[in-house]
Fold this protein.
Amino acid sequence: MANNQTPLPSDFPENGADERGARRRRRHPEIWIDELEATLSDTAATDLETLKARLAEQLRDTRHSLREASDSAQDMVRETIDCTEQYIHARPWQAIGLVAGAAFLFGVVVGRQ
């Protein structure tokens, strides 16, 4: 499925990097594949070196975006773990009650099946 949208300035290496293209790729990861497919199916690009340069740039941008998304997810997981630990240390009996309630509900749901 090639993307038929108007290309962004980031799609052209001579225009340099454009933050809009990177933000769009972060929000919609499937766009990375669409952009690569569109570049490969581009019949106007007759120069092999130009095509290789465009593909290399798109892959570099994709790798960078994936790395940023991974780092962001890791940061969110660390923050969640830290908040959970603080909550458990501040309210140990309430945490035990929450775990017991969740275990009870899980047992009821599994027991019905």
User: Anything to note?
Assistant: The CA atoms of residues 56 and 62 lie 10 Å apart. The radius of gyration is 23 Å.
